[in-house]
């Protein structure tokens, strides 16, 4: 009951914050320099034509009216048409979102699992060789510059060795072939995913490793670990059943927030690997002054971040019995 | 054969500043059903002795000399696995800061059942939990609190749960390290009363570690007073309490208020404890001792037998 009340209260907050974001986004895009019409049209176009286009897009109306239209569209689920593609924004987003979610959710879950596992090992061998290798390795990979690593990966594994495709998410010959079934198509996507996934994994697992390691070291100093040892439990049981569940709590927050922000898809990764996701679309739409598309993408990110914050808080209550709302 | 015999043990820690001799040449004997109190100020080595008995010294600490005989077997030469097996089954511990001795994310009942299960692997979990119910009855926690988490307990209940946990495998020896320090005096008194009753019922030998000499005197048959890593006085509680022989014990007693005795000013002990990385050659208390003589500083102090089990480590008595 308490929990339901808490979730209700949090959702009200989410709605209010979302409304603020909605407004700020609207203003930001109108204040930004540049004019979408000038991007869309031929420089030779007559001023009359340009004006007609402006009227068509609703950009001639006063700001207040534009805002009201914007709100109305939002609440009726119409995010408008992309200036650039001329397609409904919703369609564009729905076609890109699964690609982003597939790549980034997989990479975060994978790096969190591996990071937590290795962090646990490192803390257990604190000060020994295993610990040094893991910690230094994590620090090095985590501090690499992502676009650089991505390019190196492409250069080495795609260009030099030719093991993996250089760009994209699918091979046309597989997807256009009417004979290829679901498995063949999935395998094709996985094959394209190897490089971007490994790049993201290499960059991110170190963070989880370091968080888990230091959290474990703190936890191992707790009195209840001494109790567990005094009880005659085996070291493995102490590590996995008494220390790790407590130590993993900070990692949960971190994973939750990363999952939320992964929706924006690391514009850099998607751009370098030409992965057809939201992040790449976002960069593109901003640079093209494609207001409807950019706004919708930003709103999607905001909504996901807000909701995942609530989800992480609620999840915490399940993992840590001390937290009750 | 005594239940537990500590024979001339010295314990040290490797620290950044050098080798710290935390405990030196301590010996005592604990018989079945008896209780022995170790009293002294912070850093005197009493907790270190408790940890060494449990085999739980931190990685930088080790027993350098001496023997710890539990039912005649030297536990210091046992393998880690052998030590793990006798822990809690033969010798359990009631921890200092019991508030944090329970894992916050596990149910209290399960934590106690875990101790039973690890030493009786053939037992079903349900059977272990029903044993825990019995333990809760013993220490006076309602059975329905079995499935609660530690933070749902009051301070006194946590302490009771920790005591129930110590009793879980029917140990012969319990080491109680400041078991009631965090509690208010009323709860403290109730808990000590329960511990005494349980000790009689199960004939357990208890080593009671505390800085509070009045609690130790109240609980124990024999008292060992520790100062700067050494045992400085040992004897039956009444003799030590009523006619202390070592100047440190005298000073310790006059630095505590009494409720029933005549009103007197509390006398703090001036000075501080010596550095245990380079302990002084002579008596370790001589710098703070009101009765010190010139030779105290240079001559190592000797045990002086006062009679009927009462002895003191002092060059002058």
Q: What is the helix content of chain B?
A: 25-40%
Mean pLDDT of chain A: 84
Q: Determine the CATH superfamily of the largest domain in chain A.
A: MetI-like
Largest sheet of chain A: none
Instruction: Give me the side-by-side strand order of the main sheet of chain B.
Output: 6-7-8-3-9-10-12-11
Taken from the alpha-carbon principal axes, the silhouette of chain A is: globular
Which two chains form the greatest contact, residue counts included?
A-B, 20 and 26 residues
Q: Fill in the CATH topology of the largest domain in chain A.
A: MetI-like fold
**Strand tally of chain A:** 0
In one word, what is the shape of chain B?
globular
Structural class of chain B: alpha/beta
Beta content of chain A comes to under 5%
Q: What are the segments of chain B in which pLDDT stays under 50 over at least 5 consecutive residues?
A: none
Measured on Cα atoms, how large is the radius of gyration of chain A?
Answer: 24 Å
End-to-end separation of chain A in angstroms reads 9 Å
Question: What attributes does this structure have?
Answer:
heterodimer; A: about 325 residues; globular; B: about 325 residues; alpha/beta; 8-stranded mixed β-sheet; about 30% helix
């Amino acid at each position: 009951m308490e929990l339901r009340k808490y979730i209700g209260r949090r959702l009200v907050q989410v709605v209010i914050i979302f409304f603020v974001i909605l407004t700020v986004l609207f203003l930001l895009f109108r204040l930004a320099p540049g004019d979408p019409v000038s991007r869309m049209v031929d420089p030779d176009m007559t001023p009359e034509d340009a004006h007609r286009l402006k009227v068509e897009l609703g950009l001639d109306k006063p700001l207040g009216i534009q805002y009201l239209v914007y709100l109305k569209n939002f609440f009726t689920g119409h995010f408008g048409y992309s200036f650039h593609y001329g397609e409904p924004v919703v369609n564009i987003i729905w076609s890109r979102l699964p690609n982003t979610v597939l790549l980034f959710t997989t990479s975060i879950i994978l790096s969190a699992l591996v990071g937590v596992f290795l962090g646990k090992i490192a803390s257990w061998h604190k000060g020994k060789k295993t610990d040094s290798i893991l910690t230094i390795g994590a620090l090095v990979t985590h501090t690499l510059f992502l676009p650089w690593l991505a390019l190196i990966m492409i250069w080495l594994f795609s260009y030099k060795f030719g093991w993996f495709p250089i760009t994209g998410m699918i091979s046309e010959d597989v997807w256009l072939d009417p004979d290829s079934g679901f498995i063949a198509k999935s395998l094709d996507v996985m094959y394209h995913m190897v490089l971007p996934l490994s790049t993201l994994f290499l960059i991110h697992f170190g963070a989880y490793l370091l968080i888990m390691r230091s959290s474990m070291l703190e936890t191992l100093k707790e009195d209840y670990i001494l109790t567990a040892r005094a009880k005659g439990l085996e070291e493995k049981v102490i590590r996995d059943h008494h220390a790790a569940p407590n130590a993993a709590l900070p990692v949960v927050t971190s994973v939750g927030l990363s999952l939320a922000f992964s929706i924006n898809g690391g514009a850099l990764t998607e751009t370098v690997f030409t992965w057809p996701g939201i992040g790449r679309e976002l960069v593109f739409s901003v640079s093209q002054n494609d207001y409807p598309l950019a706004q919708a993408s930003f709103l999607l990110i905001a909504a996901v971040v807000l909701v995942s914050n609530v989800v992480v808080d609620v999840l915490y209550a399940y993992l840590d019995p001390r937290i009750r709302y | 054969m005594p239940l537990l015999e500590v024979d001339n043990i010295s314990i040290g820690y490797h620290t950044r500043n050098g080798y710290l001799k935390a405990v030196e040449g301590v010996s005592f004997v604990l018989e079945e059903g008896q209780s022995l109190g170790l009293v002294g100020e912070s850093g005197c080595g009493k907790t270190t002795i408790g940890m060494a008995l449990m085999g739980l010294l931190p990685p930088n600490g080790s027993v350098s000399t001496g023997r710890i005989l539990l039912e005649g077997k030297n536990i210091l030469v046992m393998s880690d696995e052998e030590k793990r097996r006798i822990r809690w089954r033969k010798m359990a511990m009631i921890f200092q800061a019991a508030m944090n001795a329970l894992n916050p994310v596990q149910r209290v009942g399960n934590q106690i059942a875990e101790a039973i299960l690890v030493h009786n692997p053939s037992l079903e979990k349900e059977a272990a939990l029903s044993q825990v119910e019995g333990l809760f009855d013993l220490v006076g926690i309602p059975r329905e609190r079995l499935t609660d988490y530690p933070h749902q307990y009051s301070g006194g209940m946590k302490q009771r749960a920790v005591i129930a946990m110590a009793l879980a495998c029917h140990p012969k020896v319990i080491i109680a390290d400041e078991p009631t320090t965090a509690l208010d005096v009323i709860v403290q008194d109730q808990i000590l009363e329960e511990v005494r009753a349980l000790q009689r019922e199960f004939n357990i030998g208890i080593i009671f570690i505390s800085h509070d000499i009045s609690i130790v005197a109240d609980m124990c048959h024999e008292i060992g007073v520790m100062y700067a890593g050494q045992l400085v006085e040992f004897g039956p509680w009444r003799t030590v309490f009523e006619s202390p022989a070592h100047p440190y014990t005298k000073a310790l007693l006059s630095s505590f208020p009494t409720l029933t005795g005549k009103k007197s000013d509390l006398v703090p002990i001036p000075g501080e404890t010596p550095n245990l990385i380079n302990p002084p050659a002579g008596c370790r208390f001589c710098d703070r001792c009101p009765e010190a003589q010139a030779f105290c500083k240079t001559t190592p102090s000797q045990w002086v037998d006062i009679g009927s089990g009462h002895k003191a480590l002092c060059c002058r008595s």
